[in-house]
């Protein structure tokens, strides 16, 4: 309590002492990640290092035509840096406290101070619209009610009497009061929650995990492979004693670069990022903001969707559903005037606003009001109509109709249907003299039941039906009464039990409830977070929607966090997806985009990994048998661009509705490794009889033709079914390759020295045989269920 022991607040000296002690409301939050960390993680990677070393080697050789591969390193690093820096800025802006100033009482005077100038033991002066700047305890209340929906999930204003706890970040709705500050700065609720929110984490992406695992596998073998390649190149060109005699070291180094570049799937990460990026752009046109690119994949894997009721299934607004009279018809007119009188209270709550918009009269004059209290659960007034005075009570049926069991039973029945029910009664005895006095002992005559209903979002029913068809389980978690939430769920045809989460005190009880319940009411923020954790521990992929601060940590912990556009800044900051126009029916679009991305990236990953496989095989064989490497770096770039890079871009954006099935990495390896071995064997067979019988540049050109033929067929298999557009894609890349080989400028640029002779016929024949081998393997693997049918 303040040291002065009065309600005059702290003195200037007491404030100065607390400031000197550091007991002020300074909001010092660490940045989520530093820019340096982001740059290091995206630039200084193993594969960037290897490809950069190869590029430096190309610079030493003086022919930049062999260094085109380095462009992918630059673009891929830029995409990662921009994406993660954008996420950093969003997280750094996350804050729960938005009010720049607060009113406090000091030296007996109410003064306005900055948010960070509030100190421990300050006496807050609270008015409607004020935000609570620090945790506090009420010392005086006059109808004080707070909106804590963003903190607790309870959509109704919570009335605060003396000694009630106020959490920083909540807002005053009605009434006035004084509150003693008990926690400031980093110790306040808002600061603790903001610190949790700002902790950086990446969405779990199976595609990203599969790609990273592939890169880890490669990192284990690349070191020995590069060493073998370098030694093999030196031995091929005469050993260490002769390789530096003339320019043979240049040829050896160029061979080594070509071998290393062929082993690295440099475009795989880039293409995955591009596929995510294009999906994000398309979703943005539908008012869906994707804050982390990999999030578009995750909803394709989601099998549990946790929803907050208010703001997701409902608009968060109440409407007057109807009035059910409980009195004789002669008294209905006066009862409706009483409702108009309750609605005329400018300092009233949301219920008063609804009544004021539906009931109007100029016949009454209010002579006394008793504001609503969370302790007594009623409000009351005395009014004069045409010279006749009467008193009226409006509040919870269990308090107002306590002495009228029949009418109370009817009110309970209506509440069970999902309607918010209030009882209006005329007071027979005088109203209590004190504001917070219970109504018991005051006789009343029941007049009417006021029925309020939340407005359902028109798209909610169809959207829930869609997820039900897609085998996605929906669980509604709300801070409201479970009976009310269950009624709304039934109206939306959501099956399952309704459980009062306030009765669940352990993780085991909550886990048991999650097995069968589709509705959890009276859920605390900690329980929402625990529910997400428990579902994830059971192997479920969880999406969580929300708009309030009470949802923020559950949204952050979920595999996919989805925020409403009108939600708090904190919740939007930690979400992966934001529905900008608050339309819940946008989620099927996100699901469709995720399915397209995960299926198409799996498809094109096979092409990249096949290239890595044949690159490793060619590097080993040429090193062991001491051949000059069968390709120049630019020739591998030509094959990779036409048979992998350009087609993969189009395939990654193609429509694909295949339902997600776990095991992406296994399926990729089962297809790409065998087909890559076939492609590598094709190149070896084509090169072996030529490299001594014809000039080396011609042997390499013919081997490039053979490798392109088999790579084109790997692509052909993965593009099925062969629609008109896909046939056009295949024909276009084949035609482009032919043109490159026979147009003088491009032929010279890529060192493609081919002529219509026996050597070229040999290369085409071997390439065709390799294509047949790919086709036979695919048919065998599909029959055995080793790979997905790409149809």
From TrEMBL:
- Any transmembrane segments, and where? 43-61, 67-85, 214-236, 256-281, 612-630, 636-656, 668-690, 702-720, 727-747, 759-781
Record SUPFAM superfamilies: Calcium ATPase, transduction domain A, Calcium ATPase, transmembrane domain M, HAD-like
The segment(s) forming the P-type ATPase A domain are: 98-197
In Pfam terms, one family for this protein is E1-E2_ATPase
Which superkingdom? Bacteria
* Xref: NCBIfam families: ATPase_P-type
* Protein name in the entry: Cation-translocating P-type ATPase
């Amino acid at each position: 309590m303040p040291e002065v022991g009065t309600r005059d607040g702290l003195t200037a000296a007491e404030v100065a002492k607390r400031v000197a002690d550091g007991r002020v409301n300074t909001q010092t939050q660490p940045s989520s990640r530093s820019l340096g960390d982001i740059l290091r993680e995206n630039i200084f990677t193993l594969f960037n290092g290897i490809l950069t070393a190869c590029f430096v080697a190309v610079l030493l050789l003086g022919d930049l035509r062999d260094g085109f591969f380095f462009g992918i390193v630059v673009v891929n690093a830029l995409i990662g840096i921009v994406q993660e820096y954008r996420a950093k800025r969003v997280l750094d802006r996350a804050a729960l406290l938005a009010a720049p100033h607060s009113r406090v009482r000091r030296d007996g005077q109410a003064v306005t101070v900055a948010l960070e100038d509030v100190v421990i033991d300050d006496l807050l002066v609270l008015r409607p619209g004020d935000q609570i700047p620090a945790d506090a305890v009420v010392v005086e209340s006059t109808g004080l009610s707070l909106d804590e929906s963003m903190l607790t999930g309870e959509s109704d204003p919570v009335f605060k009497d003396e000694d009630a706890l106020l959490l920083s970040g909540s807002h005053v709705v009605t009434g006035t009061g004084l509150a003693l500050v008990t926690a400031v700065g980093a110790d306040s609720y808002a600061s603790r929650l903001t610190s949790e929110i700002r902790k950086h984490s990446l969405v779990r992406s199976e595609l990203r995990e599969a790609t990273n695992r592939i890169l880890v596998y490669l990192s284990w073998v690349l070191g020995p492979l590069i060493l073998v390649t370098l030694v093999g190149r030196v031995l091929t060109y005469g050993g260490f004693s002769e390789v530096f005699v003339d320019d043979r070291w240049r040829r050896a180094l160029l061979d080594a670069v070509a071998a290393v570049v062929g082993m690295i799937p440099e475009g795989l990460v880039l293409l995955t990022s591009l596929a995510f990026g294009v999906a994000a752009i398309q979703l943005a046109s539908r008012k869906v903001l994707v804050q982390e690119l990999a999030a578009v994949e995750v909803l394709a894997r989601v099998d549990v969707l946790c929803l907050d009721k208010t703001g997701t299934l409902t608009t968060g607004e109440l409407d007057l559903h109807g009035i059910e009279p409980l009195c004789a018809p002669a008294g209905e007119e006066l009862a409706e005037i009483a409702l108009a009188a309750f609605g005329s209270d400018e300092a009233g709550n949301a219920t008063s606003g609804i009544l004021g918009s539906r009931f109007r009269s100029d016949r009454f004059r209010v002579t006394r009001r008793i504001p609503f209290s969370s302790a007594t659960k009623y409000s009351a007034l005395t009014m004069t109509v045409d010279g006749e005075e009467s008193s009226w009570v409006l509040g919870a049926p269990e308090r107002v109709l306590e002495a009228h069991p029949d009418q109370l039973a009817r009110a309970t029945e209506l509440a069970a249907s999902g309607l918010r029910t209030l009882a209006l009664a005329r007071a027979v005895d005088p109203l209590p003299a004190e504001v917070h006095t219970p109504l018991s002992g005051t006789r009343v005559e029941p007049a009417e039941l006021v029925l309020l209903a939340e407005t359902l979002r028109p798209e909610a029913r169809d959207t829930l039906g869609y997820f039900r068809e897609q085998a996605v389980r929906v669980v509604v978690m709300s801070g409201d009464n479970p009976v009310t939430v269950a009624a709304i769920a039934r109206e939306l045809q959501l099956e399952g039990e309704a459980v009062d989460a306030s009765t669940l005190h352990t993780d085991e009880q909550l886990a048991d409830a999650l097995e069968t319940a589709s509705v959890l009411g009276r859920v605390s923020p900690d329980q929402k977070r625990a529910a997400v954790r428990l579902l994830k521990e059971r192997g479920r992929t969880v999406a969580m929607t929300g708009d309030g601060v009470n949802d923020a940590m559950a949204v952050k912990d979920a595999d996919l966090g989805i925020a409403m556009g009108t939600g708090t800044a904190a919740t939007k900051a930690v979400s992966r997806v934001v529905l900008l126009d608050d339309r819940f029916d946008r989620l099927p679009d996100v699901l469709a985009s995720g399915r397209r991305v995960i299926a198409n990236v799996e498809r094109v990953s096979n092409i990249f990994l096949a290239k890595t496989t044949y690159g490793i095989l060619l590097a080993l064989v040429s090193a062991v048998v001491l051949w000059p490497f069968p390709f120049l770096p630019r020739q591998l770039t030509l094959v990779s661009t036409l048979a992998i890079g350009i087609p993969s871009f189009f395939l990654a954006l193609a429509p694909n509705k295949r339902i997600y099935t776990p095991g992406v990495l296994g399926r990729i390896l089962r297809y790409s490794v065998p087909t890559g071995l076939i492609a590598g064997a094709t190149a070896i067979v084509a090169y072996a009889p030529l490299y001594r019988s014809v000039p080396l540049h011609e042997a390499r050109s013919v081997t490039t033709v053979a490798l392109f033929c088999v790579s084109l067929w790997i692509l052909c298999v993965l593009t099925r079914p062969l629609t008109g557009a896909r046939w056009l894609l295949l024909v276009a890349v084949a035609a482009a390759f032919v043109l490159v080989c026979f147009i003088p400028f491009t032929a010279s640029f890529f060192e493609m020295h081919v002529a219509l002779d026996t050597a070229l016929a040999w290369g085409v024949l071997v390439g065709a045989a390799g294509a047949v081998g790919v086709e036979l393997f695919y048919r065998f693997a599909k029959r055995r269920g080793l790979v997905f049918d790409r149809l």
